[in-house]
Amino acid sequence: MVVKVQHRKNFKQFSIGRYFSVFLLFGQVLLHLLQGKTYHRKILEHMVTAGPASLCPVLLVSGFAGMIFTIQTARELVQFGAVSAVGGAFALAFCRELAPILSASIIAGQVGSAFAAEIGAMRVTDQIDALHMLRTDPIDYLVLPRVIACCLMTPLLTIFGLLTGIIGGIFAASQFYQIVPETFLESVRSFLTPADLWIVLLKGFLFGAIVAVNGCSWGLTTRGGAKEVGESATTAVVTTWVSIFMMDFLLSVLFFEKPTF
């Protein structure tokens, strides 16, 4: 019993240490980025993984989410005679919040987990130690290209998801509530400002960094064997989702909440 309790205690401390390593890796990535040593070929490889390979699920989820959200909001607004506000409600909620979060969540599940599993497998098979023997910094070779790729591709995927969601919203509004596309789009334009689009891009950039750093950190701190590699990939996705929602809350308070003093 004492051994089991001690084992659980050590495991808990080990988990806390792995969470803390994520924040340390953020600082290391920034430092290495300022030093300017990057592997451009690796960046291009990971851009393909984080971009075109993730485009299809992002478009599908965003399109259906746009239709679902439009159906739910239009049903209530039409009852109050506020047909012209359907696109505006869509713009405020989907464009500002849902599109960046959905895109980042899909990338976390597909790309972040792959980063954690790949680097975790390299860790348990001593390939990262081999990089040290070759005088190659794992941060420069493994982490930094993945972070740059995700930071570049996540905003682009978010924009594509946003456009697909708007198309889905137009389709749902016209098919189920006979709202013409011109009315829907005019309402979207009246509520959505250019500053909102810049905020969407900023969210995509930050969410991409969160996905890459979380995945790489959990991969680098993997110990054990194949089972631990799978656990690292799963935990990387969960912690990334939590971090994305926390960051989105902070950004919403920063940009949209007016001070009361």
UniProtKB/TrEMBL annotation:
<feature type="transmembrane region" description="Helical">
    <location>
        <begin position="16"/>
        <end position="34"/>
    </location>
</feature>
<feature type="transmembrane region" description="Helical">
    <location>
        <begin position="46"/>
        <end position="71"/>
    </location>
</feature>
<dbReference type="InterPro" id="IPR030802">
    <property type="entry name" value="Permease_MalE"/>
</dbReference>
<keyword id="KW-1133">Transmembrane helix</keyword>
<keyword id="KW-0812">Transmembrane</keyword>
<feature type="transmembrane region" description="Helical">
    <location>
        <begin position="197"/>
        <end position="221"/>
    </location>
</feature>
<protein>
    <recommendedName>
        <fullName>ABC transporter permease protein</fullName>
    </recommendedName>
</protein>
<keyword id="KW-0472">Membrane</keyword>
<keyword id="KW-0813">Transport</keyword>
<dbReference type="GO" id="GO:0005548">
    <property type="term" value="F:phospholipid transporter activity"/>
</dbReference>
<dbReference type="InterPro" id="IPR003453">
    <property type="entry name" value="ABC_MlaE_roteobac"/>
</dbReference>
<feature type="transmembrane region" description="Helical">
    <location>
        <begin position="233"/>
        <end position="256"/>
    </location>
</feature>
<dbReference type="Pfam" id="PF02405">
    <property type="entry name" value="MlaE"/>
</dbReference>
<feature type="transmembrane region" description="Helical">
    <location>
        <begin position="77"/>
        <end position="95"/>
    </location>
</feature>
<dbReference type="GO" id="GO:0043190">
    <property type="term" value="C:ATP-binding cassette (ABC) transporter complex"/>
</dbReference>
<feature type="transmembrane region" description="Helical">
    <location>
        <begin position="156"/>
        <end position="177"/>
    </location>
</feature>
<comment type="similarity">
    <text>Belongs to the MlaE permease family.</text>
</comment>
